[in-house]
Amino acid sequence: MGRPPCCDKSNVKRGLWTAAEDAKLLAYVSKHGVGNWTVVPKKAGLNRCGKSCRLRWTNYLRPDLKHDTFTPEEEQHIINLHKAIGSRWSLIAKQLPGRTDNDVKNYWNTKLKKKLRKMGIDHVTHKPISQILCDYGNITSLPNNTANHFGPSFNNNNSTTFVPESDPSSCITGLAFTNMMVMNPMMESQDHSSTSTLPFGFLSQFQAMGQDNVSLQPHFLNEVTSSCSSSSSPPATDLLSSQCHATAQVVTPSSSPFNWSEFLLHDPFSSADQLNKHQEEILHGLVSSPANPAVGNGIQSQPQGFEVGSSSSSAINGGQGLNNNLPDDHISSSLSSFVDTILGQDSEMRAALFPELLDGSFDY
DNA sequence: AACTAGAGCAACCGCCAGAGG
DNA sequence: ACCTCTGGCGGTTGCTCTAGT
């Protein structure tokens, strides 16, 4: 029944690869090509797991890989693509010839996130921190019919009722609301890594930014957190805590546990559903379909003037050296339309939710 | 010179969809 | 039809190097 395991994981070598191992793997793949990775270590005389061999090959030994540092053009391209499609590193890497998903991921985590932070930009949403705070502040002040956009899943099966309360003057309410969302024990029960499920990444951003750029102090956030996640009385002097308690309430009948996954996956906006569907279709086209000439020929290329967002900025000026096969204008149009489509529908969503914020779109 | 903190990066982990037996 | 494995992916860990004290 089934296949035999690829290797005895307790008896294979792990950790860094030696030059001798690299040479064996390189020699084998050069001669036989890549096929079934489970047999590669045996045939190549390596005491490694096939998966480890595959990773070593794809991330390091492949002859078409670049090992030099990322260029400013590549950097900007990563940022733009991340803004458009998020942390789908393999897709992003496919746009950067000679780069692996691991390269891109590492570069993002070690360099670009910090760079964006220093610019005061949330690395998840690619929006200014201040705008995100105001977005959430406005969420809490939305009229009931608008707020109900958040509600359908909450209200399904009478499991949960989300009751926003108004505080039109405060951006901080947004933060408090988010902390409530993040630290709510109910949520934690669904996902113990709740901080990674932040709808936005700015909580960590605040912590990372420390005390320089924001008047909120880490301990301040902690107090909010604790007061929001427990039924104890908040410190009277803690503005955020009181805001937290005053801003939103989640009523959860204990007999019917609320499913956050369903809430997060369910999108009450049909346009957003269409957006997701469309985005998936486009991404599918982006990936690797040999039938798609834009993919096979040029999608690994840098589009000229590729720019996410409505700005006409030409921070990426043509991506020379990245484009191998297609004319720049061809790539530019295919990728730009892809991004434009996403951003256009994003704007529609924002128009529905935050009409007053339409003027605040941010571009690099 | 010794120690520490942070950066950079290679490798591993765990999950998932699809395929093999 | 079912079970298990493979290949691919994103997230995370841990090692090495370097700069600062």
Strand tally, please?
2
Give a short account of the largest sheet: 2 strands, antiparallel
What's the CATH architecture name of the largest domain? Orthogonal Bundle
Approximately what portion of the residues adopt beta-strand conformation?
under 5%
Give the averaged pLDDT, no decimals: 55
N-end to C-end Cα span = 55 Å
Q: Find the CATH topology of the largest domain.
A: Arc Repressor Mutant, subunit A
- Which superfamily, in CATH terms, is the homologous superfamily of the largest domain? Homeodomain-like
What does this protein structure show overall?
Pfam families: Myb_DNA-binding. One of its GO terms (cellular component) is nucleus. Residues 9-65, 66-116 form the HTH myb-type domain. It is found in: Nucleus. InterPro entries: Homeodomain-like_sf, Myb_dom, Myb_TF_plants, SANT/Myb. This protein is mainly α and 364 residues long. The chain folds into 3 domains: 19-61, Orthogonal Bundle (Arc Repressor Mutant, subunit A); 71-119 and 269-358, Homeodomain-like (Arc Repressor Mutant, subunit A); 129-265, no CATH class. Helix content is 53%, strand content 2%. It contains 18 helices and 2 strands. The protein has helices spanning 19-32, 40-44, 50-61, 72-85, 89-94, 101-118, 129-139, 144-147, 151-155, 172-183, 185-190, 202-209, 218-229, 239-247, 260-265, 270-287, 293-298, 328-353; strands at residues 161-164, 248-251. The chain has a two-stranded antiparallel sheet. Helix 13 (218-229) runs parallel beside helix 14 (239-247). The N and C termini lie far apart (55 Å). Mean pLDDT is 55; it is low at 143-275, 281-336 and 354-364. It binds a DNA duplex (21 and 21 nucleotides) through residues 1-6, 14-17, 36-38, 50-52, 54-56, 58-60, 87-90, 101-103, 105-107, 109-111, 196.
